[in-house]
Specification:
By secondary structure, this protein is an alpha+beta fold. The protein contains 2 helices and 4 strands, in the order E-E-E-E-H-H. It has one domain. It is globular and about 40 Å long. The protein starts with 9 loop residues before the first strand and ends with a helix.
Length: about 90
Amino acid sequence: MPINLKEYPNKIKANLWANRTHNVFYYNFVQEGKRHRGLIDLKSRVAWGKRDRVDYASAELVKIKIEKREGVISDKITLDVFMVKH
């Protein structure tokens, strides 16, 4: 299912946008010539405020970038993990 970019008008920071209610976040970045994009869904976190959801999504984006970088560069990755990630 394609991601409709018009649903994410609120720019949080570089590479991170939110929908109108700030409970679903869209990320898009290029790392080592490969484009990575996806959604961070926080609809189940109803008790969290807007600031909490934004902070969590920002932290998740950093975590995703690190995982993508380590998946390509790391010499400690196993073949099974590499095949699942790529």
